[in-house]
Structure formats: structure tokens, C-alpha cells
Design goal:
Layout: E1 2-3, E2 6-7, H1 8-39, H2 46-64, H3 68-89, H4 99-121, E3 137-139, E4 144-146, H5 147-169, H6 171-181, H7 183-188, H8 193-215, H9 227-240, H10 245-265, H11 273-284
Antiparallel strand pairs: 1-2, 3-4
Length: 294
């Protein structure tokens, strides 16, 4: 069976690849949306934190023999601690300044982190094996579905929806949103707003680290993996609406699928289709699809 002259198996394979990429876009843009929406920081270091998550997972396995399932917890925790250090040492001094200072600072930090790992490990990349429990594939009849890629999609969806629920539907999320709107008032109720801000940035960094661990068995772990992806993820956030958590999730998944289908019908445009969509959306809705108009 063909779809527009393309074999069904090839079509569904690209659709699956687009969904996997979309899952990474959703998780990374989710972390960016959390940090920008709650703190107002355009975090250009997010790609470097994603790379750190993948490298921490590889280091745990290569040097300590600690496998994938433990790395899913330990690597994001380590990246979250790095995020807390960044927030305490640098970003807390910039909250009252123009957001461009935060962007420039995090961009510089990203270059420093990437340069350190490039010097230590080179750029050829390190292989990280798929965990045994998720190896192999499942024959669905119309296509063969790699088990690990299915896991990535399901895990990403679970994390994204859990984060959205935490911020939008719980008391803790209400405190976070209120603290960023009126810190003095929230502190008057005995809530430690600076601590909340610090932990929020750490949580956003941990989300990037978790995405890095999920990506490690699919792509080679290398220092440039974050810089190659972060521009696309920023485009996803802009399309969804800066600071919109659900917008980032839905837009990330949707654009991943669009990118995958573009590879089927017009491969030459697959590398720019996200930016074409961004230009079209900004022409008609500058705040993004799910963003609030100023």
C-alpha cells in the first residue's frame, strides 16, 4: 500500500522518527518555557545542559558501571545541581536588568561548557548502548517499531504532562506563578521566594538533562549535540508562545511530526520547515499559537 506514491512502511517510519524528534523538542522546549515563563530568563545554556545530561549518563556507565535506569535519576539530578549553581552564582544578579543580559550570560556559559567537553572528549562522539530491557523491536504488521524509540515517546509525554499538571493544577504551581508576579506579597505569607526561584531553574535544567539521557542511546554523545538542537527548540518555543507550557509541549510534538513528513515529501526542506512555520505564525500571531497577547 502506498501513500502519495510512497510505501506505507517508509511513510510510517518517517512519521515515527518525527514523533521521536518531537518528543525531544517537547521536553527541551518545556524546560525553556518553565524557566522563561516563571523567571523571565531566556536560557541559551539549555542546549549545553541537555548535552551534560547525556555525558553524565555516559560517564556513569563508562567509569562507574552505573546503567541506564539509575542514570535516568542521577544524571538529571546532577544537571539540576549545575543549574542551581548557575542560578545562585550568576542569574540572581540579573533579574532586575533587561532580559538580554540573561540571554548573553547563558549563551556565554553554553560556549564555555561546550568548549570544556570538546577539549576533554573531542567531537567524534561516544556510543551509549540501548538498555537490554528496551532492545529489539516489535512487529506491528505494517511496520517494525524499535522498542527504545517507543519508550522515548511515552516517557517524554509522561514527563511533559506531569510537569504541566504540577505547575498549572497544584498549590505548589500556584505559589511559583504568584512568586514571579509579586514576590514581596508571596514572601509576606512566609514563602521563601528566592528558594523557589532557585529550585525552579534547577528543575528546568534537570528536564534538559533528562532529555539528554533519553537521547544518549539514539545519537552519539558529543559536545555539539546541544548547540545543534537549541536553535530549533527556541523556534518551537516561539511558535508555541514564550512561557506557554502546554504550547511548548503540543508545538514540539507537532513540529517533530511535520519535520518527519517533510523528509518524506520534500527532503530538501526538512532542515528549514520549522523556521518557515515560525515565520508564518509570527506574521499572523506574534505572541505564538498559545501565547498571550501583550
Amino acid at each position: 500500500m502506498d501513500i502519495f506514491g510512497i510505501p506505507l512502511q517508509a511513510f510510517l517510519g518517517q512519521l515515527l522518527l518525527g514523533l521521536v524528534n518531537g518528543a525531544f523538542y517537547a521536553m527541551l522546549s518545556l524546560g525553556l518555557a518553565v524557566i522563561f515563563g516563571l523567571l523571565g530568563v531566556v536560557n541559551f545554556a539549555h542546549g549545553a545542559l541537555y548535552m551534560l545530561g547525556a555525558f553524565f549518563a555516559w560517564i556513569l556507565l563508562d567509569q562507574f558501571g552505573i546503567g541506564y535506569w539509575y542514570a535516568l535519576v542521577l544524571a538529571p539530578l546532577a544537571v539540576g545541581i549545575v543549574g542551581v549553581i548557575i542560578e545562585r552564582l550568576f542569574l540572581k544578579r540579573l533579574y532586575k536588568l533587561d532580559p538580554i543580559y540573561g540571554l548573553l550570560l547563558t549563551f556565554g556559559l553554553a560556549l564555555i561548557i561546550e568548549g570544556i567537553f570538546r577539549e576533554m572528549y573531542g567531537t567524534s562522539g561516544q556510543a551509549y548502548s540501548v538498555p537490554e530491557a528496551l532492545s529489539g523491536a516489535t512487529n506491528l504488521g505494517f511496520m517494525v517499531l524499535p522498542n527504545y524509540r517507543a519508550w522515548v515517546v511515552l516517557a517524554s509525554l509522561a514527563v511533559c504532562m506531569g510537569t504541566w499538571y504540577l505547575i498549572e493544577r497544584t498549590r505548589l504551581g500556584a505559589y511559583l506563578r504568584a512568586g514571579t508576579e509579586n514576590a514581596a506579597l508571596v514572601q509576606a505569607f512566609g514563602i521563601n521566594v528566592p528558594l523557589m526561584v532557585m529550585l525552579t531553574y534547577g528543575a528546568g535544567a534537570a528536564l534538559a538533562g533528562l532529555a539528554g539521557v533519553l537521547a544518549a542511546p539514539i545519537i552519539l554523545v558529543n559536545p555539539t549535540m546541544g548547540s545543534n538542537l537549541i536553535i530549533v527548540v527556541f523556534a518551537v518555543v516561539v511558535i508555541g508562545g514564550m512561557g506557554s507550557i502546554m504550547g511548548s509541549i503540543l508545538t514540539g510534538l507537532g513540529l517533530g511530526i511535520v519535520e518527519g513528513l517533510t523528509r518524506v515529501f520534500y527532503p530538501e526542506a526538512s532542515g528549514i520547515v520549522v523556521f518557515v512555520v515560525m515565520v508564518i505564525v509570527l506574521m499572523f500571531r506574534p505572541a505564538g499559537l498559545f501565547g498571550k497577547e501583550a
